[in-house]
């Protein structure tokens, strides 16, 4: 491995954090390993959560990290270190690092790993992904891949190059592994219970998905320190192109499972808006650890940062009207956290996810009869559908009548939490590597997903 200006600093840092580097300057895969990871410029905590799982079958425990010398790297190593030292099922990852201004080229030159993991600055991400696939690397990267409309063509190129080289480029869609979302998808596919999706309209959408997030929170049991550039929308992207990526993805995934979506014919963008959360100096210091705003961030007349992290969009998906909205507050109330609300209206019933104070801020699943439909008929159809699920992949589900609707009671064993979903996504990705390709529907849907988010941004800016 080539020397860098941060080599001595790196060795001391890894020793302090308890992550032992490889003794060899350039390690090869062990005989039992099929794949190995390289982490490129880890600037977001999601990169660390890939390594919260103790191990993955067929994956080398030696992880290569390529990054510039700086706080982002230090924070990443501090996040992964506790996974190796925890008492319950400690991880077995070992880390070797290259720090220097030419870190990206060093990753390509050394060619130790076949999987690049990216989670950090979003503005350069899609170009970095393209470079990875052109150098023969599979890619597992956090959302969003595209934050500006002009970059959608680069995503198209990424997918085409990956196909031509028999590589897999996959974005980390954790919400597909949330149990309430999984069951919502199952229930709306049962036409005896749900009927068919209503078309709705902007005044009464057929699908509504809203999420509320918080800038200051804990991850893996520690307060999350965010980099300053997280608050620069030119780097991070606005809310309309960030968290809403998940909302668009699960809308496709729930309504049209494993079906390709053609954004040119299946989607009609109707409206979008965005608005800021105002952040004062004390709040910024608390979440970043810095003593003031850096000069790159533009403040308002009162000295606060207008952070455009909030937005909503309305569009038609194969004629079904969809409203998606994301909001960011600074900090959740005591006992609360990030929340998700979702309703999908069918001709016979609606299937809802709620996560407010009445649910103790835990997502819960409900079914209620559509207007003009006998509740008793919906209850009987739901019982039949639930019997099918409990007799299959989801034993232990129960029903409880609450007023005019039914509450699907979900065992705690299915509620593994957002952080554990990264391990599940990684296992799915590794399964795709074993097959040598993504499912055919994933490619057009990825293009459609980022078309929706970037088109919404364009609409909101036009106002």
Distance between the termini: 51 Å
Strand order of the largest sheet: 12-13-14-9-15-16-17-19-18
- How many E-type strands? 19
Low-confidence segments? 1-27
β-strand amount: 15-25%
Shape: globular
Helix-and-strand structural type: alpha/beta
Mean pLDDT: 92
The share of residues in helices is 25-40%
Per DSSP, the total helix count is 15
Written description of the protein model:
- By secondary structure, the chain is of the alpha/beta class.
- It is built from 15 helices and 19 strands.
- The strands form 4 sheets. It has a 9-stranded mixed beta sheet. A 6-stranded parallel beta sheet has the order 3-2-1-4-5-6, with helices on both faces.
- The longest helix is centred in the last third of the chain and has 21 residues, at 442-462.
- It is globular.
Short account of what is shown:
It is built from 15 helices and 19 strands. It has 463 residues and is α/β, with parallel strands linked by helices.
Keywords:
single chain; alpha/beta; globular
List the helices and strands and how they pair.
Layout: H1 7-17, E1 37-40, H2 46-49, E2 62-67, H3 71-85, E3 94-99, H4 103-110, E4 115-118, H5 125-134, E5 138-141, H6 152-164, E6 169-171, H7 179-188, H8 191-194, E7 200-201, E8 204-205, E9 207-216, E10 218-219, E11 222-223, H9 233-236, H10 244-255, H11 263-266, E12 267-279, H12 281-288, E13 305-317, E14 320-331, E15 339-345, E16 349-354, E17 364-369, H13 375-390, E18 398-402, E19 405-409, H14 418-435, H15 442-462
Parallel strand pairs: 1-2, 1-4, 2-3, 4-5, 5-6, 9-14
Antiparallel strand pairs: 7-8, 9-15, 10-11, 12-13, 13-14, 15-16, 16-17, 17-19, 18-19
Helix pairs in contact: 5-6, 6-15, 7-10, 10-15
